[in-house]
Structure formats: structure tokens, C-alpha cells
């Protein structure tokens, strides 16, 4: 049985004078330990879909199941990492990392030790007592990853978490997140506008069309790319070929909108 199942998802946004269909008849599955990316033109409903999968938003019609249960019944098992780190500026990096555990009533000696161990694993052991303002953007995003992973989520939802970073830091964080998720066998869904990022990190890529938002096509990333780090993947011929294929498909979708 698939770990994540979305069936015939449709979502409407209502205003006093109109109805906007953000998503229409979206169905897909994700296996446990799989990494998928959602890409498509602006306004195709990617972030709306991520909010539905997280349980933050109820679809107008359709159904989502995570490990056989609705997402709203297991929010403590879902990790959400955003473009902004949203660290509390008045708390240390250690305290920020432990926030989720405290809110879920899971903070104890063992979970705290695991969280601190993870901080050190990703290179933040020497800044545990520092405050967010004392860290670079890349270090803050690593702290946000540590906070997300501390609650040991079954599913990670990543909404353009690297887009605000400089290119070199972005590539380093892609590699870090890729290896961490692989080593912990985590299931992940990434929303991104970066085709190269989607190819280098994913097992499959879901391309969405707009007006209304709908699943247009699914691309399977070749095994030789899935078995290499994101940085190395970008150097492969297969990466460039798939990039060209997706680019052309995306271009055709954007022409339809114009």
C-alpha cells in the first residue's frame, strides 16, 4: 500500500463575486521513503496542495491519506519546512530546535539528546547557545531542518526551502537534506520552481498545469541520477536531457496560458 495517497483532490477559493478553482481532479501516490517534487507555472496550486497534504487546509472535494489515516489526525508526524526559517529570535538555536517536541508533549531526556545529536551531525554543534541573528542564512535553514527532524516526522513537506539562499549555499543544503532524508528513510514532497533542483533531489517529478491547477505529467528520474548526490547529479548527461524535456513541456504549458 502506498504511504501517501491523494485521490481526486479539488479545491475552490470563494469570494463574494466569484469562485476560483485552484486544483481540479488531482490524484497521485507516494511510496514510503520516496522523494517527489511538484513543479509548474505560478498559480498552479502547488502550495495549496502541500497545505492540503499537511492537514492545514481541507480540500473542497477529494481525500488524502498518510499511512492510511487523514493528515489532520497525525499532524505531529508531518514536518513542514518553508522558505523562511521562522526561528524565534529570542531563543537559542538549541531552544528553537526543541520547540516542536515541547508543543507535541514529546520533550524528554532521550528526545532532547537525539535532537542535540542531530544538530551536531549537521554542523551546528558549536552554535547551540547562539541566537538566530548570529547565524548565516544557510545555518539558519539547517537549524530549521533540525527543528523539523527533531519530532521524527513520517513525512517531510518542503515548500521552496532553499530559494532565498545564495547559489553555493543552496547547493550545499540540497546535498545535506538529500543525504539526511536518505539515511533516515524519510518520505518527502518538495515544491520548487527550480527544475534542476527537482531533478537532482527527486525520484519522481509531478508537473502541474494551471487554470485550473491539475496534474499534467509525471517524470521518472533515471536511476543513475537517483543514486548520486544532487551536486553530482547536475553534472550528468541524463540530468541535462531530462531538464530539456521538462523545460519544453513547461514552456508549452505557459504558452497555453498566454
TrEMBL record:
Domain ABC transporter: 7-235
Keywords: ATP-binding, Nucleotide-binding, Transport
Keyword Transport in annotation: yes
One Gene Ontology MF term: ATP binding
Highest taxon, organism lineage: Bacteria
The protein's name: NitT/TauT family transport system ATP-binding protein
Species whose genome carries this gene: Siminovitchia thermophila
The organism's taxonomic lineage, starting at the top: Bacteria, Bacillati, Bacillota, Bacilli, Bacillales
Amino acid at each position: 500500500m502506498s504511504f501517501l495517497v491523494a485521490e481526486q483532490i479539488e479545491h475552490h477559493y470563494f469570494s463574494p463575486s466569484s469562485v476560483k478553482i485552484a486544483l481540479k481532479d488531482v490524484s497521485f501516490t507516494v511510496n514510503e521513503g520516496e522523494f517527489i517534487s511538484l513543479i509548474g507555472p505560478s498559480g498552479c496550486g502547488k502550495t495549496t496542495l502541500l497545505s492540503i497534504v499537511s492537514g492545514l487546509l481541507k480540500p473542497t472535494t477529494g481525500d488524502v491519506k498518510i499511512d492510511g489515516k487523514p493528515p489532520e489526525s497525525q499532524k505531529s508526524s508531518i514536518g513542514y519546512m518553508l522558505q523562511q526559517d521562522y526561528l524565534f529570535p529570542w531563543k537559542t538555536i538549541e531552544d528553537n530546535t526543541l520547540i516542536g517536541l515541547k508543543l507535541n508533549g514529546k520533550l524528554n531526556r532521550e528526545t532532547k539528546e537525539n535532537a542535540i545529536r542531530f544538530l551536531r551531525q549537521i554542523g551546528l554543534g558549536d552554535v547551540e547557545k547562539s541566537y538566530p541573528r548570529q547565524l548565516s542564512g544557510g545555518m539558519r535553514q539547517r537549524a530549521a531542518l533540525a527543528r523539523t527532524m527533531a519530532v521524527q516526522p513520517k513525512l517531510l513537506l518542503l515548500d521552496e526551502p532553499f530559494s532565498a539562499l545564495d547559489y553555493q549555499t543552496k547547493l550545499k543544503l540540497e546535498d545535506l537534506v538529500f543525504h539526511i532524508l536518505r539515511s533516515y528513510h524519510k518520505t518527502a514532497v518538495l515544491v520548487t520552481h527550480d527544475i534542476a533542483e527537482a531533478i537532482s533531489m527527486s525520484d519522481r517529478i509531478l508537473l502541474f498545469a494551471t487554470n485550473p491547477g491539475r496534474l499534467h505529467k509525471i517524470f521518472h528520474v533515471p536511476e543513475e541520477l537517483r543514486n548520486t548526490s544532487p551536486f553530482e547529479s547536475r553534472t550528468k548527461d541524463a540530468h541535462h536531457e531530462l531538464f530539456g524535456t521538462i523545460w519544453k513541456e513547461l514552456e508549452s504549458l505557459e504558452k497555453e496560458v498566454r
